[in-house]
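In this section we walk through a basic example: taking a raw amino acid sequence and producing a predicted 3D structure, encoded as discrete structure tokens. The instruction is simple. Fold the sequence below.
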Amino acid sequence: MKIFTLGEGSYSVDATKKFVPFNPATDNYRERPASLFIHVNPFLIKTDTDLIVLDTGLGYKDTRDELFIHQHIRNTGFDPSDVTLVLMSHLHYDHSGGLVVERNGKLEPSFPQAKHVIQQKEWETAISGVSTSYHKEIFEALQNKANITFVEGSGEIQPGIRYELSGGHSLYHQVFWIDIDGEKCFFGGDELPEPEQLIRKFVAKYDFDGRKAMQLREEYGQKAAAEGWTCLFYHAKSITVGKVEYQDDHFKILPA
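The resulting token sequence is shown next.
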């Protein structure tokens, strides 16, 4: 199993939920008042049988009018058309924007050959337009065009790949456990988004159920430490792929 971080950079997000690129080396935090600063890191996993994308980023393009996530996949030595599985923890815009690409004024699936695994009720929430955290037009463009496998609850996609309905960050959020040939990888989406959330226990106001999300992080961290799971941190600033150690009621994250 090979793991690649498809980093899309850093962004500030204000009350309008607009993501504005932010370069910590040159931009001033004080010029972005009342903003949340986040880092966006989709992942690519190569196994013997699949090329897997875990969440798809914002869907922003580079100066050549190409999706960042497509170019980053090419930089790893693969082609976007090689992707066979797209596993979505949830469908908030900063995780789902790269599901589509704009060509000739129309949105098209970014990975038309891949199977997309999405919680059924998360999809229904996203396409209903009830929240600005979801961009409805993405899912309307995917409908009847992308290969989508809707799942409910928890289960197994195929041997070695499990999904688990968690419901902490969004009501129908899911996490993924990939265990192939003894190599173990955990993707917690926005319920284990960065190492700091393991190290500092707190209830986050941006979670649907902040207390549950905090409890889940603790459970995931302890399981990862005890069983040797590699964790993928979608919003990490530095360590995006890490190993977890737990001792004396404290977590420590080391680069994998």
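Looking at the output, two observations stand out. The chain has one domain: 2-181. The chain has a mean pLDDT of 95. In the next section we compare this with other chains.
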